[in-house]
Structure of Glutamyl-tRNA(Gln) amidotransferase subunit E:
Amino acid sequence: MLDTKEKLFCSCPTVIRKDQADYSFMRRLRLARSEIGELDPAALFEFEKGLHFIYEGYNENVCLVEMDEEPPHQPNREAIELALKFALIVKAHVVDEIHVMRKIVIDGSNTTGFQRTMLIAIGGRVNVRGKEIPIETICLEEDAARKVDEDPTRRSVTYRLDRLGIPLIEVATGPVIESPEEAREVAHYIGLLLRSMGRVKRGLGTIRQDLNISIEGGAKVEIKGVQYLDLIPLVVKNEARRQQRLLEIRDELKRRGLKEEDILFSPVDVTVVFRNTKSRVARSAIEKGGVALALKLKGFKGILGVELQPGRRFGAELADRARYWARVGGIFHSDELPAYGISMEEVEEVKRLLGTEENDAFVLVFDEKEKALKALEAVHSRIIEAFHGVPEETRAANPDGTTRFMRPRPGKARMYPETDVRPIKVDGSLLARLERELPEPPEKTLERLKNKYKLSEDLAQQLFNSEHLFLFEELVTKTGASPVLVASVLTNTLRNLRREGVNIENIEEDHLFGVFKAVASGKIAKEAIPDVLKAIAENPELSVESILSKLSLQSLTISELEELVSQIISERKQLVEEKGEKAFSPIMGLVMERVRGRIDGKTVAEVVRKKLLEAISS
């Protein structure tokens, strides 16, 4: 996402807001055929959900263009030049004339029902650890609106329009990446090149990775929205594992002698079985006038419980389809029953009504009859796909590195020309000027970290491999904090906090600037940084000053410290008499419990040692 002054097709500022919106309006999006009369499968999928969309906007940075009440303006020249610069950095072939295209998207994230995009260049390359990675395409496009709420009962989704229209550069690499770790390294390096231009927004979600993953015998599956670099290897590994398990399921179905035609779509109403059930899900649905429908799956016993990814079984694939196609809460399947309040007696009665045999399985849905039927249709369709192995689809990344079904893969019918924007010619003089303005390569930045800021080889490399390389220099320059301290916090401290379960996404750059200014000015000691950052993550709406006050982290003077140390030594007089100088460690520990974060630890050690020697000699 580019940090330009204005959005891509209007003059609104590219500011992301967090406060309450100024206004809202409602729209429904309808599906249109392409110029050759075809329907895009992904767009058809979204249309058939039957949703309506509520859009929220701000007077400051949302105008009639985002509301689709006014044609787009000519594209932002600053954004175009940044995209051209990136193309030159990776030595891509820039097109002679830039044309704006419309890409059909009717999930509500665009008020128009399409996303505007333009091809900037093709055929570039980057070198990552000695391997040449081809860059197939570089596009400049408008970012989508951001989802802020979803109400399944009202069949509505709410989007905020402040992000809609912010320019972003989309970079597509060639299919040569061969390992999960290499995928992260390539994404990281491309991110460094983008950030080196100095006009890319920072923060969670400003650089997002969409991963196309396939294994031998599998299918091309697109994973959308991987926001953490460190999550990429895990997502790739889990998706490769999922595809391998799906291939194994396909082969197992063949060994069992099963065919597609064996799986009949014959739902059976089994509501009577659950009239007195202890299952809260079933009871709630039936009391609201819903039904219990079951579908027999011949020969599928044990298949639905096969684990595809950690914590996600094949049954979860069926549940995903049921949720997205029919908006039901989920499904139950025989490989996981009895459970969830459903008894063995109820399971056996369902089997009897379905006429199942020993190796058969079944799925259950509790909901309104129309929705339950649609859910089972989606389940049946996914079961048929299992006979072919891995279906091509678009999936969304979960925070734990697993993925879930999102929608079918888009087809060729989703792109068509934008008729409201004139083409833009790219002349040689412009490219020559931009060539002279290219930033230094990231490798030179790495050397500067070591030479200018005296970072060790290991710490400089850690910073280079993180997402904070260019933030580091700003923090050091603008706060006056120690370069080693800043680098250590950006690499080690933040990583450790995330491992502890701290939601570090709530820690914004302004927070970091405030914390390092407090350290540099002596308001707090560097030892307090982890506690302060943890408090910020828990209370992101508070200022750094408020957090420091809340934690009672006002700095101590030397005289106050000396008085406290003398008091603790006096309270532990017997310990000092028995151990002498060896009492330093326990005394130091007691003092640090009282002053941690309020004064530098080195200073504390000096004062403890001084006061301890005075006590011993007296």
